[in-house]
Every structure is written in structure tokens, then in C-alpha cells.
Specification:
The mean pLDDT is 93. By secondary structure, this protein is mostly beta strands.
């Protein structure tokens, strides 16, 4: 009764009580004479099978002496990705400003001592497979600034190209702008993305880059000695959109539920995601699964596929990608489209499964899709993923365009891609041993979710698996799961790198998630995450968790709670105008963190990113932002005008290491990250070991009572406040001023009152009983958010003002 699929070199293994063929995850699993391709040990493909190749990055901007690592991708004559075990032969062509050579799938090169002439790139790196060659270009900038000068290099994060014609501003720590030649507020970058600032302050200073098509970026309060800064900025993520669309082939012909989620690889820094861009538009879908679920008009994200038996509930999917690089018909970089941000190249991915209806946690959905029992759902979802598979399609090139009347629902220009329902199973079952969970507002987080994936150079992180765990007893450990031996272990299912991803670095992104935002009106939505590399860059099959992947050497960063920003030009208690402070009590522990990043996003998700040294942020020290020069809108406000409402604010902390997962790695400092060198923000994901984020949202309030136009005297007024911490202590945001007027005049017997004591601590609900003397017709009730130091005599509204009114007759 021998099983033919067990006859190979890898044999079989017992997975969930079933004998299945073993898969490899790395070449070393296959011995010296074979390689691992799509989970199978095969003969190494010959270098002669390579018909074309491409180097990533294909364009770099460096300063003399800086190092850059390049990777090569190859394709055979049928345009299928091919991974050559020994890689390519690397060289620096004649006239190259870089030096380097060797063999392999990647190679490091070093910039020479002399800047390149002109403002265009020079062919600098070559990778060769016999007679098949590909190249990359470079610009080398001047060596070092003179006394009193600051050099700034501005590059696009996802293309590597210089950002020309951006405005660069030098400012003092108090936000005042240091005037440049001719009393100009800024200096324009040239075609190399290079600018020279003069009048450098003697101690700390800030540099801000403004460009309408990119995020504004501020390096705040820099105090290093290099005075040569790198500003890496990302295109506005929602200005243009594009990607792929299609369906699935070879969907199993069973009576089960067929489900899949798909998307495009996550390029650049994984901490800079736009959820709106990532998920795409939702599609109203009638979801009917047997007799258990019947929900009409469910908004399902564009990247989700759903079927039941022969019934196709949502057969079409789409994934959105970000602008980057692309090639023309000859295979050369299409520089016009790259410069315009109208193209990109990413890897499409899917996790798809054929799941018996009885295996689904239907009871967790019994309250409807808008009332899911999240804890119950997460604790029971992992076994389902043993039935899931991974599909990837590398090198999907697409165009991007500005949304028209139909918005991002118009997919007419999307690249058509029909994916296989299953390429490789999530065959590697193992457990990850997590460190103690972090706390948010005094309580340990409620769950941890793990995304396993691989980093494809130039295209980003590709998800290959998933794991989830819950913390129902409120201690520092994830609950015991199924057959795993102890608390703190989270089961994982993961596919190996396949179909062109082989050789990529495996990683586990572990996000510790708090439900506080659902329980507290002032709490933000956030997570604390560690980004771990796998030992020997290999997967293991260990479903019992006897030898778990130990992640306890990495700690979860603290949530950046307690951040305050004064949007006004004038000072408020403890915070100067246009300034940021971290005022939580106790102080947030930023030990081991390299950078604090604060992001403001206006109504179009145009961002202003601020980078500041994590060792220099506390109750009394933060940063102050300058006013944007010229015609640039002020992205601190939703409409880019100081007369508008405040923009949303999110805080992040980043922990960085020069060589994560290796004993040779050392912690990167803030200066390492922002000075123009070999460890800049264009490779944030390569250096990331942990981060935390908290989206503070924008404050709001509304009357929840009275609900009618009339109210009996002595009646109750109720107000709901969100994203605003009520109180009068230094770590609070402020109070609510409730006032009454008629014909714009005060109402006798209805005196104004300050409210800050919630009905239940943290719920944002305020109740007030009107005095019996407060009566009248058409009285305007006004509730307004005011500062912590406000008094009845001196109200002091927060800036920009946030208030609401209702008109009531009290009798």
C-alpha cells in the first residue's frame, strides 16, 4: 500500500492525522545535488535557461563611500521566473562610479570618492548569465557639506529615483525658518534630488521636504555631525490607483465553502501602509451559505473570493498596488511612467481554501457579520488554515491613473490576472513562542495575529501564511491553543517560498492587538508588533510545538500612548504652538527604540511624516513644525487650511537593527537612519525588528439626550465624546463646556458648566441634570471641547474648535 507521493527524497509526514508528502522550504533541505523549487527538490536549473534578467534596485542615489546591495531576478524564454542556484556574475562596467564584483543572487557595491558628472544616472552595475546581461544605474552626490551648510538628498521610496523640484526648508527647534539666499524660505532640489541649505544652526535643527505629489517629511531636531541627510518620501497613496483584476482557475468541484483573500505585495516600509489603498473598495454582496448564513448586501473587500458548492457568491477579485518601477516593450525602465507615478510592478498573492461547512465557526457569526464574536472566531480559525493553499504570481506590471467619476471602482485599466486556486499548500505547521504581551492603558492586549511571509526585493513582503491566538484571561501570555503544550505558543500554517520567490527572506510579523478602542471612547486603534526572521531562513514542520520558533529574544514595543499635538500657532499649557509632546503618565518606555514617527493625514490622505529621535521625546521635549512655504497646503488640517478641522494623527515607534536575525547586527540609531549612508528609510523593512503604532483619530462629540425637541425642566442632557481624553490633569486632553443661548444671548437660569467626569471611567459619556431654573423656548445647547485649563470665566476652546449644538424647548 505504498503511496507514490512518499517515494521522493523528502518522504511523507503526518499532518492532522493524514499522510501527506513533505515539502522543502530552502535549498539546504535538498542536499548538495538538488534545489528547492515550489516546495519540491528538483535538479538545479541551468544558467543557460535564463533569457532575460533585471536588477533591483535598478537606480540608486549614493554619496561617496556608501554601500548598496543589489539583487537580480531572471526569467526563462516563456517569461516564467527562474532561480539559478549559483546566481549571476556581477561586475562594475567601464566608467562605473561604483566598485564591486562576485557571484550570487545579490551583491554589494561601494560608491567611489568622486561625484558623478551631470544630473542623470550612470550605468554602474551589471549582472550576467553567460551572454544575458542586465544593468542598474547610479548617481553619486558630492562628498560633504562645508561649514554652516546642510546637504539633503531626496529620493522616492518605491522607485529609488531622485525627487526633483521639491522645496527643502531648514528650521530651528522652535519652528522658525532659517532664511536662505535672497531671503527665500526654501531651496529647490535639483534633478539629482539634491539641495544645499545654508545658515545651519549651531546645535539642533530640523529639515522638512515639501512636494505636492509626495508625503511631506520632517527630520526633527537633528543633532549629529554629518549634516548630510537622507529624506525618503512616498507618493501620495490615494492620488492614483491601479492593480490587477480577475478570478480563479481550478476551483475545487466540491460541496464545500471556497474562500480566498488576495492582494499585491507590500513594498517599502511595512509600517507606512494605507488601509484604504490596501483593501480597495468594498463590493456589496449577498452572502448565502447553506441555512446558516443569509446576509444581504454585505460589504466585502475587493480582494475576497467566496463560493459555496457550485454557487459563486463573489467570483471576481482585485488587488491594488503602489506606484514604483516598470519596463517598456524592450525591457528597459519606462522612465516617463516611473517619473509620473503611473506604473508599478508587484507580486500578486492569494491564500485560498476549500473548507467543509461544518468546519466553519458558524456560531461565532450567529449575531450577524456586524456583530462577530471576535475572540471565539480567532480561537477557532487556525485549524481551518490547514486546508488553505498559497498562490503567487511574480512580476505583475500594472498602470495607475487618477480616479474619475466612478472613483476606484472603475477597474477598466487593471491588469487581467486569473490565479490558480491552489499552487502550494500551507504545509509547514509549527508554533511560535511569543514574548510577554504588551499592555495598553494598564491591561494586557487581547490577541496576537501572525502573518508569515517572504520579502521579494523590489516588490515587497508577500504573505505566505497565518496564525492567531487570543488572551482571554488577561495575563501576559496567549492562551493555550489546541494540542500545543503551553501558553504563549501560537500555531502557524505557512507555505514555502515558491514560483519565483525562492531565496527570499522568511519573516514573521507578529501584531499584538488591543480591543481598548472598542471599550474606551478616547483610546486609539493600534498594535505593537515584532518582525522576526526565521533561524537559517528555513521553515520547520512541528505541529506539536515541541521545538517552537523562539521569538522571546524580541520584546513588544510599548504603545505610543499619551501623544499630544498643539495645532494652534500659540502655546497651550505645556505645549508650544505647532508642537508635539508625549505626556502619558507614567511615561512611555521607549527603551531600545530608534525612531518615533508621527504622521498627520489630511482629508485626501496626503501625509506629513515627522521623524524624531526616540531618546529625545518626553513630557518636555518633542518637536515643532514650521509653516509650509509658498503655495503648499498645511497638512496638519483636513482641508490643508488652518481654518479647517485638524487632520488625523498617528504615532509610531521603530526599532531597527543593522542585521536582524544575526548576532552580528547592532542597533541603529536615529542618526544612522536619517543621515545619508547605507541604512536609510528606503530599506526600513530590512532593518525592522519591532514597531508600535496608535491612530489617535480626530476628536468629536454629539448630544445623545435629549432626543426630542422638548425637554421637561430638570431633565437630563447627555453628551458622547470620542477620541478625546476627558479630565483636567496634564495627560488629559480637556473638558466639555456646555452652554445655553437664545438669540445669541445667555439664558437666565441656564448657567454654563464644565464637564469632565464620565458616567463610567473611559466611556466618554457625560450626563448633566438641568437646574429647575433653566426654562425657555428654542434654547440652543452648545457642547464644545475646551482645554484642560479652561474655566467658565475663560473658556479656551481647543484649536481647531470642535463643537456641536442642538435646539431644545425646556418647559
Amino acid at each position: 500500500y505504498a503511496l507514490d507521493f512518499c517515494a521522493g527524497a523528502l518522504g511523507c509526514q503526518c499532518d492532522e492525522g493524514k499522510c501527506v508528502g513533505s515539502l522543502c522550504s530552502v535549498d539546504s533541505d535538498c542536499g548538495a545535488s538538488s534545489v528547492c523549487r515550489s516546495g519540491a527538490c528538483v535538479a538545479p536549473p541551468a544558467a543557460s535557461t535564463v533569457a532575460s534578467c533585471r536588477i533591483t534596485p535598478d537606480f540608486v542615489v549614493l554619496k561617496p563611500g556608501a554601500k548598496a546591495t543589489f539583487w537580480v531576478s531572471a526569467w526563462d524564454a516563456s517569461k516564467a521566473p527562474v532561480i539559478i542556484k549559483d546566481g549571476a556574475t556581477w561586475s562594475a562596467p567601464s566608467g562605473s562610479p561604483l566598485t564591486g564584483s562576485g557571484t550570487g543572487n545579490s551583491q554589494e557595491f561601494t560608491a567611489g570618492a568622486t561625484a558623478t558628472a551631470g544630473t542623470t544616472g550612470v550605468v554602474s552595475v551589471q549582472a550576467s548569465y553567460g551572454t544575458v546581461n542586465c544593468t542598474a544605474s547610479a548617481i553619486v552626490l558630492p562628498t560633504a557639506p562645508a561649514a554652516g551648510e546642510v546637504y539633503v538628498a531626496v529620493t522616492d521610496e518605491l522607485s529609488g529615483r531622485p525627487v526633483a523640484n521639491a522645496d527643502v526648508v531648514l528650521s530651528n527647534p522652535d519652528g522658525t525658518i532659517v532664511q536662505q539666499t535672497g531671503s527665500a524660505a526654501s531651496v529647490k532640489t535639483d534633478a539629482r534630488g539634491f539641495a544645499t541649505l545654508t545658515g545651519r544652526p549651531a546645535t539642533a535643527y530640523s529639515v522638512t521636504v515639501f512636494d505636492v505629489d509626495h508625503s511631506y517629511v520632517t527630520i526633527a531636531n537633528y543633532q549629529g555631525t554629518s549634516n548630510y541627510l537622507s529624506v525618503v518620501t512616498r507618493r501620495n497613496q490615494l492620488d492614483k490607483y491601479g492593480g490587477f483584476k480577475g478570478g480563479y482557475t481550478n476551483v475545487p468541484q466540491t460541496s464545500n465553502v471556497h474562500a480566498a483573500i488576495t492582494g499585491m505585495s507590500l513594498p517599502g516600509s511595512i509600517t507606512s501602509l494605507s488601509l484604504s489603498q490596501l483593501l480597495g473598495p468594498s463590493v456589496p454582496t449577498d452572502v448565502v451559505i447553506g441555512t446558516a448564513i443569509n446576509q444581504p448586501g454585505v460589504p466585502i473587500p475587493a480582494g475576497v473570493y467566496l463560493g459555496f458548492g457550485a454557487q459563486q457568491i463573489k467570483p471576481n477579485v482585485a488587488g491594488q498596488g503602489l506606484a514604483g518601477v516598470c519596463t517598456d516593450s524592450s525591457g528597459a525602465p519606462d522612465e516617463a511612467k516611473i517619473a509620473a507615478g503611473t506604473c508599478g510592478t508587484r507580486t500578486a498573492w492569494s491564500l485560498a481554501g476549500d473548507v467543509p461547512l461544518g468546519d466553519l465557526p458558524i456560531d461565532a457569526l450567529a449575531g450577524g457579520l456586524n456583530n462577530i464574536d471576535v475572540g471565539q472566531l480567532l480561537s477557532r480559525i487556525l485549524p481551518i488554515f490547514k486546508k488553505f493553499n498559497s498562490t503567487v504570481t511574480r512580476d505583475v506590471q500594472f498602470s495607475l491613473k487618477t480616479p474619475g467619476d466612478a472613483g476606484v471602482s472603475d477597474q477598466s485599466d487593471f491588469t487581467t490576472l486569473n490565479q490558480e486556486f491552489a499552487q502550494v499548500p500551507l504545509a509547514f505547521a509549527f508554533a511560535a513562542k511569543l514574548p510577554d504581551l504588551p499592555k495598553y492603558r494598564g491591561a494586557y492586549v487581547d490577541a496576537a495575529a501572525i502573518i508569515g511571509g517572504a520579502n521579494q526585493p523590489g516588490q515587497g513582503v508577500v504573505p505566505l501564511g497565518i496564525g492567531v491566538g487570543v488572551n482571554t484571561d488577561g495575563n501576559a501570555q496567549i492562551d493555550v491553543q489546541g494540542s500545543l503544550p503551553s501558553a504563549g505558543l501560537v500555531g502557524m500554517r505557512m507555505a514555502p517560498t515558491h514560483h519565483g520567490l525562492e531565496g527570499g527572506n522568511y519573516g514573521l510579523l507578529v501584531a499584538a492587538i488591543s480591543a481598548k478602542a472598542l471599550q474606551s471612547a478616547s483610546a486609539g486603534v493600534g498594535a505593537s508588533a515584532i518582525f522576526a526572521r526565521l533561524p537559517k531562513n528555513a521553515l520547520v514542520f512541528d505541529p506539536a510545538g515541541t521545538s517552537p520558533v523562539d521569538l522571546t529574544g524580541l520584546s513588544f514595543p510599548a504603545f505610543p500612548d499619551g501623544a499630544k499635538f498643539n495645532y494652534a500657532d500659540t502655546a497651550t499649557p505645556g505645549i508650544p504652538g505647532r508642537s508635539f509632546r508625549l505626556v502619558s503618565n507614567p511615561q512611555v518606555d521607549l527603551t531600545g527604540m530608534s525612531v518615533v514617527r508621527v504622521t498627520f493625514a489630511d482629508g485626501q490622505d496626503h501625509r506629513w511624516e515627522v521623524l524624531v529621535d526616540a531618546t529625545k521625546v518626553n513630557n518636555t521635549s518633542g518637536f515643532t513644525l514650521p509653516k509650509p512655504p509658498g503655495v503648499y497646503g498645511d497638512r496638519l488640517f483636513s482641508n490643508d487650511l488652518s481654518t479647517g478641522s485638524r487632520s488625523g494623527m498617528a504615532g509610531q515607534t521603530l526599532r531597527l537593527n543593522s542585521n536582524p536575525g544575526s548576532t552580528s547586527g547592532v542597533a541603529l540609531s536615529f542618526n544612522d537612519y536619517v543621515e545619508f549612508n547605507s541604512t536609510n528609510a528606503d530599506r526600513t523593512t530590512d532593518y525592522l525588528t519591532g514597531f508600535s503604532f496608535l491612530d489617535y483619530g480626530t476628536p468629536s462629540l454629539k448630544f445623545t439626550a435629549p432626543t426630542a425637541a422638548t425637554l421637561a425642566k430638570g431633565g437630563k442632557v447627555s453628551i458622547a465624546v470620542s477620541k478625546f481624553k476627558l479630565g483636567t490633569t496634564a495627560d488629559a486632553d480637556g473638558q466639555v463646556l456646555l452652554s445655553f443661548s437664545s438669540n445669541n444671548a445667555p439664558v437666565t437660569g441656564c448657567d454654563p458648566v464644565l464637564l469632565s467626569t464620565e458616567t463610567t471611567a473611559g466611556n466618554g459619556a457625560l450626563d448633566y441634570t438641568l437646574p429647575m431654573s433653566c426654562v425657555g423656548t428654542s434654547i440652543v445647547f452648545k457642547a464644545e471641547l475646551v482645554r484642560i485649563d479652561a474655566t467658565i470665566a475663560a473658556p479656551a476652546p481647543i484649536a481647531p474648535a470642535v463643537f456641536t449644538t442642538t435646539t431644545v424647548t425646556v418647559q
